[in-house]
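Re: duplicated header lines in exported structure tokens

Our pipeline writes sequence and tokens for each protein into one text file. With two proteins the header for the second block appears twice in some exports. Here is an export where it did not happen, for reference. First protein block:
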Amino acid sequence: MARVPWRPLLAAGALTTTLVTLTGTAAVAKPDPHLPRPWAYGHQAQVGRQHAARVLAGHGRAEEDPSDETENAAESAAQYAEARTAPGVVAPGAYSAAWAQLGSLPRVGGAWDHVTGLPYDADDPRYRDIASNSSGGAGRVSGRITGLAADDAGFVYAGGADGGVFRSTTGGGHWTPIADKLPSLSTGDLQLDAKGRLWYATGEANTGATSFVGTGVYVLADPRTGQFQPGGRVGGAELESTTINALRFAGDRVWAATGRGVWTHSTTTLSGPWRMEFAPNPDYLPGGALDADPSAPYKNIANDVAIDPTDPTKVMLALGWRSGDAYNGFYTLQGGAWTRQTGLGDLPSDADNVGNVTFARAKNGSRYYAIDQSPLQLATNPDSALQGVYVSATGSPTGPWTLIADHVKLKNSGSALQDPGYQPGIQSWYNQFLQVDPADPNHVFVGLEEVFESKDGGAHWLTPGPYWNFSFPCWDINPAQQTGDCFATTHPDQHSVAIGDGKLFVGNDGGVYRRPVRGAVDSGGHAKDWTSLNDGTIDTLQYYSVGVGKDLKTGGMAVSGGLQDNGQSIKRGKDMVMGSNFGGDGGDTLVDPNNGCNIAAEYVYLAISVTQNCAVNNGSWTVDPSKATSFGVAPPDNALGGAGARFIAPFGADAKNIRNWVAGGRHVWTQNKGFTIRDPKEWKSVYDLGEGHVATAVVASGGTIYAGWCGPCNNQGFTRGIATGKADGTGWHQLDLPVDGTLPNRYVSGFDVDPANPKHVFVAFNGFSRKWTEGPGAGVGHVFESTDGGAHWADRSANLPDVPANAVKFLPGGALVLGTDLAVFYRAPGAKSWSVLGKNLPTTAVLQVRTDANGRLYAATHGRGIWSIVPGKSEGTDDV
């Protein structure tokens, strides 16, 4: 679930005459090195120093401290997974069963409108306030791309982390979705085989956890014109509800490195089951004696497969959990049994130093390359988790391998990551790709946080895709003041790569970028020729939230939303390009419905900032701090990191008074200044949820508050509860929620309260029911109703598919809307059963639903952007 440390963000939007520009007298002078840089830059440096200090102090693995932002990707992913799996693990078949249920439901309402189907500019000059990443150099962005494939005829295929597959027929750009008919849009890998068929492995595996599980592998015989179909699945259900790191081809077989070991299948006969080749700890697989063990999801992780170019029967497997386990290592088939391989030369083979691994082979078979992330480095190296980059000059997977780069060598190649605690490879358990130029076996590209390149087999390195431009002398917050060698770069956090038609394509947390394979670089080794391919037709943006308010200056509605690693987006009423006014990971969002420029945006762990002018700023705050228009107002729980709040923590306003806010960490916090709050001390703690407990959902109406919580939040003793009380601190108590099936022992994901009666409340539960969740007290149902303030509850799930539910919303007149991991569902006033709401909404997780002042409903999806619909239009019909 990724998936992350602090990174540059996006911004966009066409300038209007009402907005401040960076021309004429508004331009700011070039800052000297001692003047402030954007918050993102300084914040990352501070985090790096804290991370280094913790590791050097011997406090164990960095990931054990969830406040360490070098582990944000892990924390985000883990918590996304927890919501869907706790109190146990999900059995294979859960998503397929829910998909089948979905197809049997009636459909009401018209077509959804794609709100964010337009470009999103990370460097929009309108939004250069203190909390923005604008001017970092990433340009136009989209969401995380975890699979890429390209041919030599200009066809490019990109897979979103939870957005499905897009096709370009023009060498990138002008994208068309081609996988929207599948039950899973989570991308693990994309590969073109020798016959030109496109293979789509579902189930993103960047973090080795269970957050973006898929439904198997699909093949498209005519990728240039066709679309993936459910009937194109390879094999049976063997690879359902797992993740797939890589597909590799050898002879007439395809190898799949998955979260449940290594599997193979014929490439000529696509029917018949997948064959399990090797799982180091089979007792932990579904159906095994230890499948309910809390560590089961981490016991059989396969990262990649290397195949001898001279003999496809000679195969080496790379297995291992990024944080270390006894089974971590390389395996070859010896005497009919998979055996740990040693004696690989410089490439380590011990469990402590084999973690996340990626292989790449030269087209002519003369070279093999590898990246290795080390669990030991993750635990002890304050600056990087990277063990190294290696080459096998014989082309054999068993080597001997030679070290050609470590984090120090890459740091000195032009990297932007120079600060202690955050240097190349710090996230090598999350960021990895490897690609060899098919025309030159000594020309290799490495993706970590940045893009690296060697033209001489690893003797020398460049950084054509630095993390951002903030750390370079050429940078200035005013683009007119930047020197000519400060060129556009890519978004950070690299995940996928392909070469086709003489061009290099890279996929990262900001989408897809392209440059010539033999591209030009400046004197610092930074590319001069990156092109963003995120033109707005590929919307893989991963929203956690959405907020909507009237745009008083430009007309229409201003739509904001918090995004994975792409900050807070904002689309003003007449924008043709979106902008980003807050950087980093964007969490929950609160927008004044009567003034869309009154915005409260969360970074992570309740790091809330407010603005009252949409954060429009030309960057003059760098020389005059009083000109900043964004203000940090985090409740005190933020200082405790993961012990004080969830990674994406809930907050909102009272339904009856926009000035009265509630936020949930370990404590329930309130404040009554609304968007004029400027001091974090103005938050008041009205209830302590208890040691080890953190809020998962909050709602307030007329002074009555409900707060859902968990702690522990994973399957190691999972506990959940609901507390309720008044905003003034009176009447607080924990509701009696016995684990007896009355309410499920699963993650409390959302509330909404009847505007006419604060004791009338609905609650949504995440996860799957006990049929699929192998854990204590999982219960059944996803939506429950109380009319007495939570003393008693009734299951209102009725005919809903058994799928994680994320958000519930009352609509005027008594209708109810539910956002889930599959669709948005609608229950008409007075009805008991549910229907699918609207047409053409992609099948991806809907994490939040909100309405604007006109009653239009907005859905924040975690993989395909924001969509809207008028929910009451043409009710009751089957196709309207």
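Second protein block, exported in the same file:
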Amino acid sequence: MNRLAVLGLTLVVALILALVAGRPPSPKPATAPADVFSAGRALTDVGVIAREPHPTGSVENARARDYIASRMTALGLSPQVQADLSLRKVTRVEQPVFLGGRIENIIGVLPGRDRSAPALALMAHYDSVPGSPGAADDAAGVATALEIARVLKARGTPARDVIFLFTDGEEAGLLGAEAFFARHPLAGRIGFLVNMEARGGGGLVQMFQTGAQNQGTIDLLQRTASQPSASSLSVLLYSAMPNDTDFTIARAARIDGMNFAFIGRQFDYHAATSTPANLDAGSLQHLGDQVTAVALELSGSSPLPARGPDKVFSHVFGDLMIAYPAAAGWLVLAVCAGLLALAVRNARRRGALDAPGVVRGVGAALYLLLLSGALLHLARRIAADGAGFLEQRSLLARVTVWETALLLIALSVLVLAPGFTGQGRSRLQAGALALAAGAAALPFGWDIAAVALGVAAAVAGFMTFGPPVRVAPAWTGMLLTGLVVALALQVVTPAAAFLVAWPLLAASLLAAVTTLGASPRSWITPVAGALVATPVTAWILGYGHGVFLGLDLPALLALFTWLAAFCLWPLAHGAPEPGRMEARAGLVTAGVLIAGLGLAIFLRLTSPWSERHPEVTVVQHLQDAGAAEARLISTEPRLSDWSAAVLSRDGGRPSRTKDPLVARRDFWAAPARPAPLKGAEMSLSGLDDDRQRLVIRPPADAAGLTLDLRSNTLATAVTVNGRPAGLMASPGVWNRIRLQAPPETLVIEFQPAGPGDLEVRTLARSGSWPAQLTPLPARVPREMAFGDSDTALVRAEATYKW
């Protein structure tokens, strides 16, 4: 039986399994039975809520509020609106930054039989970012909750109250959640909360965050989940990322729960293309299925999940999810070590194992890991410039082509490294390939990561390759690298150890069955290898796809190439005297690598923009209040043709500039004609008790206001519209308040430690392109406004002394 043919078949079947496992369920139509969740019914609400962009404070957001409240009334939820001025300090930045604005949460209750029992809460936010209808983020979450309310009513009175919380101002800084959990009386009644979010427009729904001590929560997920996509690794990674959702506020209030989201079709995230028509109805159905199952379980007579030590858990296939206490990870590793020891003993008895070969197997594993990292990093440099969401959009517009390119590159290295090891390729050949992978990225700019990966892979190749190595010692070395890494993860972060330990367990079992590929029966290794490697590789592909979607760091996908090699190594290991099949396989492997890099070149050289995936354009008018000069600006990393033409229309040439009040990064700017635009009005006055009062009145059309304050004197007892705020705690440091839907009057009072002065900078943002400005030219269907585009910014500054 030809192992290379089996390898090819295994890879194809594994890919098909991964594609099938990652497909959302079919949406149920609006005619589905009343007691089940129907995406067809929920899409009706999505269509109304996401008719237009509706950021906090806008007319369209008020329309969405009224529609949601009317739907809740029809469902018997007796909605109430919580109007509040929210102000929340951002903790993940060095400079003191506060986010705030006027919000209007919508809260309703489905009464249960026991009104005194801790309540279940379902939460989603109904505001969108400027410029995006927000069909996925988060009209989908709101519509899901409304459909679940209907399902719960159809099934009878729940055992406990179910609170429906639709927050405002999530996109402006989790403002509605801050207001609810800090000041609404119902917040103290919540015993468990489910939040619904999105970071794209499709894909499987992931449960990616839990409350603290999640043992009971994971037990609940195991009982209820349908086709779950969840793991302790995603919970761990999300906790380390600078991302937040409304669930962040609930979790900080020590409320247990789950956070669900889908992250496919990321091109539509926060974009004008996030329309009801572009929302994947299957993803909406999957979200509804997941949350409905939890809601039915907890709104019944079941007790709320109990807290206990965090569990290690992961989905496998279908409805199967494995979970166990962190300490049980040691048992998994002990079984891995035992199986590997058994395989090593049997291979030694057959004379198939030698220590130098094991050492070179370790080197080959490192070469595979480093070379795949270098090539995947090279592909990213080739395919598109820069890192960041806007820089990545040309790849997201053709995400299937981009993922295929990375998959081809990873597969080529997965076959190449074991082939080099078994065939005995020269050190020079292996090292030159690695150095070329690193050096090829340098024409796109100096890149320390490319150099480091290329040099490290070359060193590993030079130290490893030479005379042929038999499959048993080479595979042993590969598995030993997995055992060492799994042990280290189990010690440092058990929540992530399963990602290495589970494939290692399968590979160790395969090694024991096949005597490390040296079984006297030639058919055992390819047959057993295919049976074990196919589902394991499919599972690994699923995780690789998740990392591909979540992080724009293709080099990290080398980890999954290495994991897949645990089971695939004996099928890919080269023969010491390659025959015709081996030679053809070598040519195919080279062709696959060239095809992957060729697709990256194709992405670089061709335009990705279409009516479905239009190009981002951003233009704003910027001027100082009362000034005789103005500028047209764009925060695009690379100017689109439309934006370049607009910036140049008054005769200036766009150039890069800095202004921390306007944007965190450099942006494009060109001279423009000024217009009679008003900035914020400011005044400072002293009070009887030596306190100072700063009054700021934004322009009437201001949709947003950024305020920077710097006092050269310590200020205490600072309040913002009567609410305590930790501003100006350090003299000489800029403090920022960024408001969406600012109040008509902002009053900041403080007690200075003595005489001093206060510097104030404001930047008011209009909600649309002012009529006083020359109209913007029309965009073609292949172009779209993005974010705060098509608005005016007016700066005002003042310095006050007391």
